Amino acid sequence: MANSRRRRRENSIGGGGGGGGDSISSLPDELLQQILCLMPTKFAVRTSLLSKRWRRICMIQDRYTAPKMMSLYLRTGMASTVKHINRWIELAKSRKVENMSLQLKFKTSKYTFPDSFYTDSFLKELKVSIFYTDMIPRGSVSWTSLKKFSLSYCRLSDESLATILSGCPVLQSLTLYFCNELRVLDLSNSSSLRTLRVDRNYSAPTPMQIVAPHIHCLKLMNSQLPCTLVDVSSLAEAKLDFWYGSLHGTEADSVRKMQELLEKLHNVEKLTLGENFLQILSLPKLRGLPFPVFNVQALKLETFLFEYVIPPGIERLLQNSHYLKRLTLHARTCKNEVGFRWSNSRRDAESKHVATFIELMFKSIKTLEKMVVRLKDCYLEARGFKEMVQTLPHNNNDNVSIVFSDTRYK
């Protein structure tokens, strides 16, 4: 019985005529090629197990186009893979990849990009993280479609970066993360660049000068010393946060740089200041210095909520923001006037401190239309919090709206 079923199945595959050949092999090449064009690849491969001619047609089929390869994500730290990286990059280029992310974390082996890497007309987004290895293009660079470019941990000279950027005519976004060798970042020839983010390690040897007359958005993070903004004349949005020890070096020079930095930001419309930056603004050595008048309309402060006082830096910032319409507070754990954190068991009491702090903020702002307060869920769920919100003063302006949200969600 089993042998009979097997014979019937073989006859079905072979065309049922008992001629010994399969029905696929008897078809002309033109018809087989047309069938291949209409079949998913996995089905064609399965069928090739039944027909030797089918396998040959698969190999010579010139009308089949594989699905477009959009991205290459390569992350490796194994020395044995160094010799294969060029092949992977060339494969991605041959498939006209638009997004490429290369994270190369070699401790003992060094890798140098081939000259062909710097020529690609299809690449639109590139992320390169190559730990403390020199990135020096030996020839010209031509990334004519590149719009987003991110470099991390690269040992990169001013000249090398200038060479790279000269080959990126439509670049819109540039991120430099811990590229500490850079001293003068001249972006005056990058006319399409709109967003710049610079993260510098606190061990960077010198401050960086930034010449970026075309950018609209600037983010400076984790810098040992304030960057010198030579030209940011088109800037509309900025976000800053520095390491708290930023001013512990040559004090007078650092204070002067902080003052110059604030002057360069006075025309931005959207401003975000991190917790460390706000603490620096409140240092006694900065309190007596002239403070610029800001044109900011939307201000975001990442800060602690204090019980009875507004830190001097925040107070001066609010007083000098004459056109402020929207204020966002991304609140940390509450502190008292001395600066100690309150116990986790005192959430109900801390909710009252939130109300006190917001009331003080209202007294400092006359033009406010909306305040967004982002708190941990433990505050939002505290006993009596909703009732407390309804009693908040609006500085004699009933048009001011207050919105509370959870810090876990943007």
From TrEMBL:
Chain residue ranges for the region called Disordered: 1-22
InterPro entries reported in the protein's UniProt record: F-box-like_dom_sf, F-box_AtFBL13-like, F-box_dom, FBL13/AtMIF1-like, LRR_At1g61320_AtMIF1, LRR_dom_sf
Gene3D superfamilies: 1.20.1280.50, Ribonuclease Inhibitor
Biased amino acid composition, Gly residues: 13-22
Domain (F-box) ranges: 21-57
PANTHER family noted in UniProt: F-BOX/RNI SUPERFAMILY PROTEIN-RELATED, F-BOX_RNI_FBD-LIKE DOMAIN PROTEIN
Protein name, as recorded: F-box domain-containing protein
Organism: Eutrema salsugineum (Saltwater cress)
